[in-house]
Amino acid sequence: DGIDQVILVGGATRVPKVQEVLLKAVGKEELGKNINADEAAAMGAVYQAAALSKAFKVKPFVVRDAAVFPIQVEFTREVEEDDKSRSLKHNKRILFQRMAPYPQRKVITFNRYTDDFEFYVNYGDLTFLSQDDLRVFGSLNLTTVRLKGVGESFKKHSDYESKGIKAHFNMDESGVLSLDRVESVFETLVEDKLEEESTLTKLGNTISSLFGGGGPTPETGENLTDSVQEEEESLAEAGKEEQEEKQDQKSSTEDAGEEQGEEKQQSPGQTETASQKAESQKKEEGQKSEPQDPKENREAAKEEELSKSSGDSTATKTEEEKKIKAPKKQKLVHEIAMELDVNDVPDLMEDELKSSMKKLQDLTIRDLEKQEREKSANSLESFIFETQDKLYQEEYQFVSTEEQREEISKKLSEASSWMEEEGYAAATKELKDKLSELKKLCRNLFFRVEERRKWPERLAALESLLNHSTIFLKGARMIPESDQIFTEVELGTLEKAINETTSWKNETLAEQNKLSPTEKPVLLSKDIELKIAALDREVQYLLNKAKFAKPKPKRDKNATKTDSAKNATAAPETENTIPPTEGKQEDKPEDIGPAKEPPAADKATIDAEPGSDSGSKKEKTTEAGGESRKNDEL
């Protein structure tokens, strides 16, 4: 009667006999067939895996299972009887009821233990099982837990009040029960002593209250840490009462102030009636409202503020007293060491463990061998089909003869027939041997096709490098000798590499053009790559040298002989611009000795001038000699 519906899961539930037996066992009119029996378990596992994984974002998918058997905790402790005798008492506490949902966490507290002890995690009441099921069930004990360090924790924290020893249990999503931790919890009351306010702080509070600051606001329950809820409520009620008292005090002081003002305004010798007094008071108030002395207003305001501050100070004192009286609860946790003896899964014997491990290794090796054989068979079959298709392509027919293609096609057909007849039972080694034999037969054909595919790209790269290298060499040779950074040996090495690469390319292409496409090519892509690498290495060396070369320093004009000759020819023009630094020596011509015998370079330049008489020559030589001497002195 407790079963609403029976849903079929699994392909075998389609069998009519199975459905008939299920209907009789359940006692229902029909079975639930609203889901795909073949895919239900797989789809459920997929959804559960996606929900547990962080890589997928799915709608909330919650699986709630139930513990089939109840689980309880059992422990024994000493108790004192009425006659002061001691006896052992066995206690049981239910941890998980039967059909309790999981995942779930539970905490059990042991209050009477002050020293090390042990407890047991067992199955609970199993009376709903038959005797045969109980016989198969075996031992009811799941785990034995021994705690160590309980007595030390009590000695260490003797000033604290014990709140028991708490054991934290967890039953995870798979229904596996585990003991996360065991801890000893202590608690004590700590009083908060407020520090006495200094004279400066009291003075500051008084001044702030005079200027409308008021006393400190009562702390609410949010600002109080580790306080009990009842204390918070009492504090909040006290704050409300204090606020009401403040309001009453303010209203009473205001009423008193109004009465005092009315008494001041009335004259002592008045004999008028009440109505006349009221009219006269209104008139006097209207007359005295403007010329009233401001000192009186200030004094009245100060009196009101002082009364308020006194009320606030009394309120704060009561709050402080209440705060001091409200102690805080401080909690301390000490972790307890534990030893577990898990009995629900018995340990395997050494021989059984070795045999199980060997069995797993054998299964792994068998799986790897199976994968390797399937991979070899697939490789052989795909090579046969791809090569048969390539034989009819234009680029393969261009580099092969009819006889070569017929031979390859015949071998491929034989291998295909062998695969259909005997290949399904062949070993991995035999399949690999067949594949290597066919590849060796087709190697030359594939090589010729592959080389012709690479030629255009490789030759274009070589031609481009030759052009750039030639242009670079011409530019390097055009650099003036004074600024040249490359040596003749370096430029000669580059020129030699360019010439050798060009001649090799032309000769190899000419030789390749003489050969038939079906023959082995002479022009190889790897040789082209080697030539490109050698020439590029030479060019890169010169480029790096130019990149890090330093410019040569320029020579000084006055340091060379040619410059001095230029100064000699230009002496008449620059004669007036030179300052007369040595006028005494010009007045004494006998002191200018070097001017009579100028350097040979100066003579050569002067003699080279045609159409000049001897007198002018002497004047120019003396002037040039004086100019060079002055330059040397400068």
TrEMBL record:
<dbReference type="GO" id="GO:0005524">
    <property type="term" value="F:ATP binding"/>
</dbReference>
<dbReference type="InterPro" id="IPR018181">
    <property type="entry name" value="Heat_shock_70_CS"/>
</dbReference>
<dbReference type="GO" id="GO:0140662">
    <property type="term" value="F:ATP-dependent protein folding chaperone"/>
</dbReference>
<feature type="region of interest" description="Disordered">
    <location>
        <begin position="205"/>
        <end position="332"/>
    </location>
</feature>
<dbReference type="GO" id="GO:0005788">
    <property type="term" value="C:endoplasmic reticulum lumen"/>
</dbReference>
<dbReference type="GO" id="GO:1903298">
    <property type="term" value="P:negative regulation of hypoxia-induced intrinsic apoptotic signaling pathway"/>
</dbReference>
<keyword id="KW-0732">Signal</keyword>
<dbReference type="InterPro" id="IPR043129">
    <property type="entry name" value="ATPase_NBD"/>
</dbReference>
<feature type="compositionally biased region" description="Basic and acidic residues">
    <location>
        <begin position="279"/>
        <end position="307"/>
    </location>
</feature>
<feature type="region of interest" description="Disordered">
    <location>
        <begin position="549"/>
        <end position="634"/>
    </location>
</feature>
<feature type="compositionally biased region" description="Basic and acidic residues">
    <location>
        <begin position="583"/>
        <end position="594"/>
    </location>
</feature>
<protein>
    <recommendedName>
        <fullName>Hypoxia up-regulated protein 1</fullName>
    </recommendedName>
</protein>
<dbReference type="InterPro" id="IPR029048">
    <property type="entry name" value="HSP70_C_sf"/>
</dbReference>
<feature type="compositionally biased region" description="Basic and acidic residues">
    <location>
        <begin position="615"/>
        <end position="634"/>
    </location>
</feature>
<keyword id="KW-0143">Chaperone</keyword>
<dbReference type="Pfam" id="PF00012">
    <property type="entry name" value="HSP70"/>
</dbReference>
<dbReference type="GO" id="GO:0034663">
    <property type="term" value="C:endoplasmic reticulum chaperone complex"/>
</dbReference>
<keyword id="KW-0067">ATP-binding</keyword>
<dbReference type="GO" id="GO:0030968">
    <property type="term" value="P:endoplasmic reticulum unfolded protein response"/>
</dbReference>
<feature type="compositionally biased region" description="Basic and acidic residues">
    <location>
        <begin position="238"/>
        <end position="253"/>
    </location>
</feature>
<keyword id="KW-0547">Nucleotide-binding</keyword>
<dbReference type="InterPro" id="IPR013126">
    <property type="entry name" value="Hsp_70_fam"/>
</dbReference>
<keyword id="KW-0256">Endoplasmic reticulum</keyword>
<dbReference type="InterPro" id="IPR029047">
    <property type="entry name" value="HSP70_peptide-bd_sf"/>
</dbReference>
<comment type="similarity">
    <text>Belongs to the heat shock protein 70 family.</text>
</comment>
